Amino acid sequence: MRLILCTVAMLAGPAMAYEPLVQKQEFTLTDFVTRGGETIPEMRLGYETYGTLNEARDNAILIPHFFSGNSHAAGRYSADDLAPGYWDALIGSGKAIDTDKWFVVSVDSPVNLGANDPNVITTGPASINPATGEPWGMDFPIMTIGDFVETQKGLMDQLQIPKWHAVMGASMGGLQSFEWAARYPDRLERVIPVIASGWADAGLIAWLDVWAAPIRLDPNWNGGDYYDAEPPEAGLAQALKIVSLQANSAEWANATFGRSWAKPDADPGQSWDNDYMVVDRLNMAGATRARTSDANHFLYLVRANQQFVAGHPDGNLFQGLLDIDVPVMLIHTDEDLVFPGNAVRETGAIIKSDGTPVKIVELEGTNGHLDGLANLAQAEKQIKSFLEEE
Amino acid sequence: MRLILCTVAMLAGPAMAYEPLVQKQEFTLTDFVTRGGETIPEMRLGYETYGTLNEARDNAILIPHFFSGNSHAAGRYSADDLAPGYWDALIGSGKAIDTDKWFVVSVDSPVNLGANDPNVITTGPASINPATGEPWGMDFPIMTIGDFVETQKGLMDQLQIPKWHAVMGASMGGLQSFEWAARYPDRLERVIPVIASGWADAGLIAWLDVWAAPIRLDPNWNGGDYYDAEPPEAGLAQALKIVSLQANSAEWANATFGRSWAKPDADPGQSWDNDYMVVDRLNMAGATRARTSDANHFLYLVRANQQFVAGHPDGNLFQGLLDIDVPVMLIHTDEDLVFPGNAVRETGAIIKSDGTPVKIVELEGTNGHLDGLANLAQAEKQIKSFLEEE
User: Gene3D superfamilies attached here (chains A, B) (predicted)?
Assistant: First the structure.
């Protein structure tokens, strides 16, 4: 959401942006087979890199992104770009993820929310199905977080990177981090899942469905078949509004808007045309973000997250976490309404139970889940030294 | 929701139901003027009573209800009634609210959600506007919690009760309790707001709007004009689903459903026709409850709650709470996602700041907000002795 993005930008503070101008790059995987056994003939995805891959090819750090995010993690596309990438405060010369030392690879996910964002390259229901020449719609194969990781493995092979020095991501990016560590313990050195737990529990599954409900109710959604008509922008905007609210906190809403009306003379007690400022601003942010997003992609992201169990060990929630053998740093906040603190701590306890080293860093802040994006610079020293551990 | 109601009934345990069979009664107020200055020619509302009004008429306790509730607080309508009223564990002979001693009056609110429930008597947008002979729809005057209290004041006058011995209610019933104490400090002896705070903060205002959004997106809602067509049941069901989820807890969802699929062989990773059990059951509960509910009434309840500031002191959040001079017992739980613990404690601190006695009782439980309905018997002794204080 614009609101989230603005907040991130403001809270990120005055640190210099990652210096070289950033360019989106793309890679293609052919005949990509999903966990469900379906084939996507052409999987085109975007990525960005910051820093330089060394000769030993052993200084690469992978950053998968969060639910409503994309691969723009640092820097600016042009000198007059309004805001840098979402973790610019952490990624750059001399920063926690020091681009003088590390080569950072940040990748767009399949079914990325920003299907209509010119800075996103993704493949999903809004893409053309080569078999029909029409957009896939809901015929696009259902994706999993594991499938996202497989696309990143494809890029890793294309870039000839034998092993990630680290995989680090926030929220859905944290799920991908867990998945990498559980699935490919020999292809990474360490993992930093931020504001994320080791599986989607029933609470998260249900809330993700609440996020999706407005899209399905919008008559323009039409079972996902809207690519030659008006898209379900109203439903998508409401879906994005819920994400915005749940990813933040009551403390933020109170401090930012209080009980103010959207317009000073328009009492919500007098007319249905009037509303509260907090509602009005969340609606505006949702509507703005909906314009560059795709409703079906939102539904695919919801289902990918709902299915998540690290390492996909069918029938066993813990096996994937026990398979993690590289050092883990979990960063989270107890005020998180999306991935509650106890779920993160339980995840850590399971990973640690067979001797895997686990560090837990607690963030302070007033932005709930979003603190993991906006206020992560707090953990700068811990991240820096964790990356430098032998 | 059925799900909530079942849970309440199960958790309420084996205590004997309030004994005499209960009958819904009704009262009418004519030319009721709302806070917004509009007139409702005929305000018909239901109520129930438990116990007997004494000769001194000084043993009456008022119980306003929660958002999705009604005046059925105790007892059964018939011998084969499946479940008693929602606080039956607390109301009855020898119970916390001892009907051998107290006369309990429980009142249906205006714009009650259960407009199509045969056991609810209410007046709202689904009622006939005498001026047109048609349902009011969204032309019904916007209501406030203060207006709800005024209807109860009307009943109080009709029953010739000079003073309530206590006013006690949960959630929206707690808001009405605060409102009574702030508005009519001379007409009650004490107040017990349960799982409620002294004003709707920006967080609550925004979440209430999230609850309402699915209704507005349902094309059958049609701007509130659906009384001669298909009602927006799908949107209303989704709205009720969100209430169900937010009123409970992740702990409950995990313990009850975990990551189970709705049907054992129907993997949500394989088809959009499949879903998780937690989603399926919440959908079913929402759909069942929607059948006896009215979508416009839901929207009016949302707006009434959003507007709430105890005592309605325009421009001053605290004055109404400072106007409370009767002893207060606040009962709440920190795990509440609707009225967070810190908002309740802050409310208590403000009331107490000018010397008004405030007791705070913390509930234990795993059902979040719902613990204030389902697990209130924990506070039995405290409630009993608070009611008996001179």
Answer: 1.10.1740.110, alpha/beta hydrolase
Per-residue pLDDT tens digits for A331-383: 999 999 999 999 999 999 999 999 999 999 999 999 999 999 999 999 999 99
Output Rg (C-alpha) for chain A, integer angstroms: 20
CB contact under 8 A, A245 and B306: no
CB contact under 8 A, A307 and B268: yes
How many CA within 13 A on the CB side of residue A79? 0
CA dihedral A327, A334, B249, A319 (to 10 degrees): 0
Confidence band (pLDDT; 50, 70, 90) for B313?
low
Give this complex's ipTM. Answer: 0.94
CB-CB contact of A217 with B235 (8 Å): yes
State the alpha helices, DSSP H only, in chain A: 2-11, 145-158, 172-183, 202-217, 233-246, 250-256, 277-290, 295-306, 319-322, 341-352, 371-374, 380-388
User: And the tokens for A323?
Assistant: 């398979």
Helical axes A233-246 vs A277-290, angle rounded to 10°: 120
Task: Please list every residue in chain A whose beta carbon sits closer than 8 Å to the beta carbon of residue B309.
Answer: 259
Asked whether the beta carbons of residue A269 and residue B200 sit closer than 8 angstroms, the reply is: no
Residues in chain B: 390
The residue in chain A having the minimum alpha-carbon distance to the alpha carbon of residue B238 is A213
**Interface test mutation site (partner A, options B205, B280, B336, B337, max chain A beta carbons within 10 A):** B205
List of residues 6+ apart from A118 with CB closer than 8 A = none
Q: Which candidate from B35, B202, B303 shows the least CB-CB separation from A259? A: B202
Strand partners for A168 = A192
Known catalytic residue at B336: yes
Name residues whose C-beta falls within 8 Å of residue A132's C-beta, 6 or more positions apart in sequence.
Answer: none
Query: Which residues from A are below 8 Å from B278, CB to CB?
Result: 202, 205-206
Count of CB atoms within 10 A of residue B200's CB? 23
Mean pLDDT lowest among A86-100, A311-325, B27-41, B337-351: A311-325
CA separation for the pair B9, B61 (Å, rounded): 23
Helix (H, G, I), strand (E, B) or coil at A316: coil
The answer to whether A218 contacts B217, with C-beta atoms less than 8 Å apart, is yes
Strands A358-362 and A191-194: unpaired
Per-residue pLDDT tens over the stretch B321-334: 999 999 999 999 99
In chain B the domains, ranked by start, together with CATH numbers, are 2-201+317-388 (3.40.50.1820)
